[in-house]
Amino acid sequence: MRIFKSLSQREYFSRDQGDLPPFFRDLFAGIPGEVVQPDTAAEIMDVMRVAHKNGTPVVARGAASTAFGQVLPMKGGMI
User: What is the pLDDT along the chain (79 residues), one digit of tens a residue?
Assistant: First the structure.
Protein backbone atom coordinates (compact mmCIF):
# COMPACT_ATOMS: atom_id res chain seq x y z
CA MET A 1 0.00 0.00 0.00
CA ARG A 2 1.26 3.47 -0.85
CA ILE A 3 0.54 6.33 1.56
CA PHE A 4 1.10 9.90 0.42
CA LYS A 5 1.85 12.21 3.34
CA SER A 6 3.57 15.33 2.07
CA LEU A 7 1.52 18.43 1.32
CA SER A 8 2.65 18.53 -2.32
CA GLN A 9 1.58 14.91 -2.84
CA ARG A 10 -1.81 15.50 -1.21
CA GLU A 11 -2.32 18.70 -3.22
CA TYR A 12 -1.83 16.69 -6.42
CA PHE A 13 -4.92 14.64 -5.53
CA SER A 14 -6.99 17.77 -4.78
CA ARG A 15 -7.01 18.93 -8.39
CA ASP A 16 -9.21 18.02 -11.30
CA GLN A 17 -8.55 17.59 -15.01
CA GLY A 18 -11.05 20.22 -16.08
CA ASP A 19 -11.54 23.80 -15.02
CA LEU A 20 -14.49 23.86 -12.65
CA PRO A 21 -17.08 26.65 -12.60
CA PRO A 22 -16.44 29.12 -9.74
CA PHE A 23 -19.19 27.72 -7.47
CA PHE A 24 -17.75 24.21 -7.66
CA ARG A 25 -14.16 25.43 -7.41
CA ASP A 26 -14.96 26.90 -4.00
CA LEU A 27 -16.88 23.80 -2.93
CA PHE A 28 -14.03 21.45 -3.82
CA ALA A 29 -11.22 23.57 -2.40
CA GLY A 30 -10.13 20.99 0.16
CA ILE A 31 -6.88 19.10 0.37
CA PRO A 32 -7.17 15.51 1.53
CA GLY A 33 -5.78 14.77 4.95
CA GLU A 34 -4.58 11.40 3.71
CA VAL A 35 -4.09 9.70 0.35
CA VAL A 36 -3.72 5.95 0.29
CA GLN A 37 -3.45 3.50 -2.60
CA PRO A 38 -4.21 0.02 -1.34
CA ASP A 39 -3.13 -2.89 -3.53
CA THR A 40 -5.38 -5.65 -2.25
CA ALA A 41 -8.94 -6.15 -1.08
CA ALA A 42 -7.63 -6.80 2.43
CA GLU A 43 -5.84 -3.43 2.43
CA ILE A 44 -9.03 -1.71 1.25
CA MET A 45 -10.91 -3.30 4.15
CA ASP A 46 -8.21 -2.16 6.60
CA VAL A 47 -8.35 1.41 5.27
CA MET A 48 -12.14 1.49 5.50
CA ARG A 49 -12.10 0.08 9.05
CA VAL A 50 -9.68 2.76 10.21
CA ALA A 51 -11.63 5.51 8.43
CA HIS A 52 -14.91 4.33 9.98
CA LYS A 53 -13.38 4.05 13.45
CA ASN A 54 -12.03 7.61 13.23
CA GLY A 55 -15.05 9.12 11.46
CA THR A 56 -12.90 10.06 8.45
CA PRO A 57 -14.80 10.67 5.20
CA VAL A 58 -13.49 8.66 2.25
CA VAL A 59 -13.58 9.56 -1.43
CA ALA A 60 -13.02 6.46 -3.54
CA ARG A 61 -10.81 7.16 -6.54
CA GLY A 62 -10.08 4.83 -9.42
CA ALA A 63 -8.20 6.09 -12.45
CA ALA A 64 -9.67 9.60 -11.98
CA SER A 65 -10.65 9.69 -15.62
CA THR A 66 -13.73 11.81 -14.95
CA ALA A 67 -13.06 15.49 -15.50
CA PHE A 68 -15.28 17.39 -13.09
CA GLY A 69 -15.17 16.95 -9.35
CA GLN A 70 -16.27 13.38 -8.85
CA VAL A 71 -13.07 12.29 -7.09
CA LEU A 72 -12.16 15.41 -5.13
CA PRO A 73 -12.30 15.83 -1.37
CA MET A 74 -14.70 18.45 -0.06
CA LYS A 75 -13.48 18.76 3.51
CA GLY A 76 -10.23 16.95 4.13
CA GLY A 77 -10.82 13.27 4.56
CA MET A 78 -9.12 10.46 2.74
CA ILE A 79 -8.74 9.55 -0.90
Answer: 888 888 888 877 776 666 667 776 666 667 888 889 999 999 999 999 999 999 988 888 776 666 555 666 766 788 8
Angle at alpha carbon of residue 71, lines to 43 and 6, rounded to 5°:
65
24-60 in b/e form (b: 16+ CB < 10 A) is eeeebebbbebbbeeeeeeeeeebeeebeeeebebbe
Under 8 Å CB-to-CB from 74, ≥6 apart: which residues? 27, 28, 30, 57
What is the C-alpha to C-alpha distance for residues 1 and 42, in angstroms, rounded to an integer?
Answer: 11
